[in-house]
Protein 1
Amino acid sequence: MTSPIDVLIVGAGLSGLVAARRLQAEGLAVRVLEARERVGGRMVSATTANGSVVDLGGQWGGASHHRFEALLNELGIGRFPSHYDGKGVFHWRGRRLEAPLAQHFADSLLFFEPQALGLTPAELAATGALQRAFAALVAEVDPRQPWRTPEAERLDRLTVAQWAAAHTSLAVAQLPLAWLCRLGGSGGFEPWEASILHLAWTQAVAPQAETPEAWLVRGGAGAVAQRLAAELQAQAPGSLQLGRAVHSIAQDSQGVTVVDGAGQAHRARAAIVAVPPPQRLAIQFDPPLPAAHRTLLQRSPMGAMTKILATYARPFWRDRGLNGLGLGDRPALELTADSGPPEGHPAVLASFLAGERALILGALPAEQRRRIILDDLAAYWGPEAAEPLELVEQSWNAEPFSGGAFTSFLTPGSWTSHARLAADPQGGPAPADHGRVLWAGTEVSPRWPGYFEGAIEAGERAARLAAATASPGDQPA
Ligand SMILES: Cc1cc2nc3c(=O)[nH]c(=O)nc-3n(C[C@H](O)[C@H](O)[C@H](O)COP(=O)(O)OP(=O)(O)OC[C@H]3O[C@@H](n4cnc5c(N)ncnc54)[C@H](O)[C@@H]3O)c2cc1C
């Protein structure tokens, strides 16, 4: 048994680190146990062989991500606007079109000016009608208790694909919803894997229309986690321990006993668990989690996602009046985006293999997959794009303590059954806290779950509750 502390935090991702920072600022003794040999979880940068810093996980901040913005200001870390000047490229059914972006996402066909995409009047009408029907549904969703949405059970049993097909058989009209499933910030799933209630909920609580990809972190988002970890350690050496996967958490009337993979027991007055929801299943809780919570976790898989970073000597697409935003039905990449700074160095195109594509292409030999990816980059941005200085691939499904990305989703029917039963009747959509065990992690947040912003809000909430449970000076038994 190590010396007792006030609050034990499981997971050194952004959420756990923010919780630790808040508690430490209040004078509480904290200890963060992290399973990996590094901090940051889904917030991690890498330096390529030619010295460019690229983000393997999350990287954008949004226009209304005020917590994330405030944290960066506190840490003295800069930001820059994401590059959207010029035209993007829409690739559809073998046809490549350079097209302007729309002013507002709500009036766009996936960011593009719909009239500029060369669609037939029937396609335009069907696309607009489906988007309006979806927007009307999003407006009806109860964000805190989605199971209270009008006709919730019917909508929770219909997959996104079924709901879209009932409106139109035109693939281009169905594209925006399918794309939001796979690549929207709550994404990583196919339109037949989640209900229309789930997708509508994601847009009610984390609206694409609020431009969540507005700006980027100077020096890479991974630096934020590194800085938080360094500050934590500087304040109290030993308060962050790497390579310590938590295996069990037992609680009694006085506190919690947490045992890590090295067999070390830690005693505290409260615990904050800040891991992706399915990872909670790897921890033995005593008393056990309520049945509805456990069955909900079994119905909350992580999305399937591989992020690809291609670096170049210069952002040659910008020279041609293009902004790097590529979208369409290519075999591998349904989204590419310029994630470099205004000065153009490093020049980076970030792109994604999402949903089934991540798994199918992930199973191919590396060289074959690389050729398919480079073909797609060239299809969007021309032959130069097929010759990057470096091509970095990060499969999130291969990461044992993440299990996928961007975030977890609920399978059809789960909101109106397991999630409703697991929730605190007075609280938000996430499962109720478990006595002295408090939940954090982005997925717990009522706003921007799946994003950095949600990770911070969830960490702050858990820290507030933990501080009330464990005041300084109270020695845990
Ligand atoms: C490819 C990708 C792109 C993304 N893009 C964006 C973006 O542009 N903008 C945005 O806002 N968000 C984005 N996100 C999402 C964002 O990265 C996450 O929402 C956020 O980083 C989650 O932080 P977290 O602390 O909640 O969870 P995590 O980062 O997953 O941290 C959880 C930590 O817990 C640890 N852990 C797990 N199990 C245990 C255990 N048993 N014991 C101890 N430790 C354990 C893990 O190792 C991990 O370090 C993206 C994510 C990915 C992967």
Protein 2
Amino acid sequence: MGASETTALHVLPNRHADAPQQRDLDKCVHCGLCLNACPTYRELGVEMDSPRGRIYQMVQVATGKALMDEGYLEHMALCLGCRACETACPSGVEYGKLIEATRTEIQAKVRRPFPWGMVEDFAYGTLLQSPLLLRLLATGLWVYQKSGLEALVRASGLLKLMGPLGKIEHLTPEAQLPTFFTQYGKVFFAEGERKYRVALLGGCIANVFFARLHEATVRVLQKNGCEVVVPAAQGCCGALHAHAGRREQARALARNNIDALLQTKFDAIISNTGGCGATLKEYHELLEHDAAYHDRAKEFVSKLKDVNEFLDSIELNSKMGPVKRRVTYQDSCHLCHGQKVKVAPRKLLKAIPGLEFVEMPASDVCCGSAGVYNVVENEMAEEILVSKMRNVNSVAPEQIASSNPGCMIQLAAGSRKHGSGKLRENPEPVKHIVELLDEAYRNAR
Ligand code: SF4
Ligand code: SF4
């Protein structure tokens, strides 16, 4: 039997080509060792909202014993995709792969009610892929926020009349002008001797909401002997698309980035976003059956490094000034459970003079951000955030360090609402690790 025939046998009859494969589902031995790692199970105590329960339901659907009914859709939607269960599983179940495959099948077979289907199609298919629209969005939002209109709306009580939209309004990040799109196509020279030539990935919405973080990333890399190139032809990484089951769109975006980034020889391709990095490192899996791109995808993945991972792998420039602050660290799920990068961020924090690093309990449990989860499953995300903030407050930090912009938005909202002591008073309760390094380099005499 040839390889292609073997693959074909694993696609069950009448199922989507990207649906969960039986061989992957069969890896689960139902031991339950993953249950306590799962944030939704910890909150709800419901088996069907645990990894084991979700895999059981996937098997029922795969074998035709159950339908994709409302209950199934809800249990799958409530999963954060945080992959904490993957780290906890002793049997090597690749849960991230299973939930993405499940969502791809749901996306292909289940029609979203009007107008949400259209809104989602526009967001994933157009907005996230258009620098022009993202810049327009940022400019409009910037005017709304800086003109005082945002404060007026918040004070007027209007948000209470806006139902679910009013409840998520506080998660709107600050629009940052100029956006980082203005740096596309530029080269930033290394400070001192050039040791490395690296490419920086800007992503999509991070260019307009985290432009200053990207600039700090460039500066920190320059301080560490890197010539930083921001390739103009790069685009959205496709992580949000893959998580939402829009696999074909994710594949098209992956091909675009491979074309854009492999044109030139780089020592490393750098991402400062844990969520994007996990998908970028899986491009070879996404393009597994694409003969023209699979080998190039592997080459791309071999160069891809999270910024923490990269800085930890080189001799870090230690000419830093003190950052006198008590800081805790929240793991980005996709950095620690997806990319398995857990030690490097802590080593970097400990390298900053004056910074008092304090570990919080359950730092590797999701904060509830999970891509767009805090927007679409706001109630559960809030419950998870309350638990998270309890753990943050227990170590009394002045600031939370993170490695993922999505977590930064969620934790900043959590600090304002549920933070205690100096954290609550801090106008910048959350910073990315490269922003703390940037601060330390600027403090050097
Ligand atoms: S991905 Fe996260 S939320 Fe989903 S089942 Fe696994 S641990 Fe639970
Ligand atoms: S996913 Fe892994 S840890 Fe969880 S029940 Fe299955 S085999 Fe056990």
Protein 3
Amino acid sequence: MIEVSNLVKKYNERTAVSGVSFSVKKGEILGFLGPNGAGKSTTMKILSAFIEASAGTVTVNGFNVASEPRKVKASIGYLPENPPVYTGMEVESYLRFAARIHGVEKTNVKKSVEAAMEKCGISDVRNRLIGNLSKGYRQRVGLAQAIAHNPPVLILDEPTVGLDPRQIIEIRNLIQSLGGEHTVILSTHILPEVQATCSRVVVIDKGKVVAEDTLDGIAARMQSNARLTITTAKDPKNLLPEIQKLDGVVSTSVGKTATEGEFVVYVECQKGSDIRSMISEKIVHANLSLLGLFQEKLSLEDAFVRLITVDENLDFKREDTQHV
Ligand SMILES: Nc1ncnc2c1ncn2[C@@H]1O[C@H](COP(=O)(O)OP(=O)(O)O)[C@@H](O)[C@H]1O
Ligand SMILES: [Mg+2]
């Protein structure tokens, strides 16, 4: 339903999106997860045919955003990062106006707007001025304008930013209920949002996709991995290749230590494999004087932090995040 291939966006000299590729299947709710400045909004504006790409190809609902922007716009509902607020308009009039702009036939406007208000739970505020609504209700109005013309694709840029916890839950439930019927891509910088609403996630950092998986997949792949912190009195450097070869070991790295004469090594292990006894034997056997062996589970939040720092310098970056 959405195909993004080698997308690049440069703002003058600054590269905001740097060769991004991913796809979204029909009926799927895809989370587009990344920290601030990662390039999420830029990507979504290009998907919505609001700004042009510097390079790459994007098709939405079978239409090319560069050559068929009008058809793309007719296929999507877009909730921008900062939705325009027509504070002086009443909810229903605004939604009718938006539906007309999105090409809904005059005779169908009433019915379409009615359905959208119903879905978004705003029928009872239809005569209120948008400017007098709470942020949560305004966001619902934003969602209602995105779905009123019943587009096959919804592009939602940080849909719950600025809402209170109760509103967040309501909006997430609403988005979830839109999946299946609509194909949804939603951006967010917080992992729980993805966990609550999406079936699959594309993680973006510094303009690049750094991970892509189902939510279960990422959790299974990462959550249960364990990290061993090993402290020795002698430099264990020469033992690392041997540890790396052990069944269940994902990676090894050298850590920093605050204590002189102590050495720290981190070993990341796959879930279900407990290699503590094997490692301690090897260390004792090599006469390295084992001072400590500590195992911790990597949580999904950790996993996310790792995902967005994955590169050839991974080991060094991870050292920095460790407090020994
Ligand atoms: N109109 C613009 N002009 C210049 N730089 C921009 C513009 N919009 C975004 N950027 C830059 O592009 C990068 C990605 O921004 P953005 O797509 O808004 O990220 P996100 O939505 O993930 O926070 C950032 O470094 C941002 O400063
Ligand atoms: Mg943004």
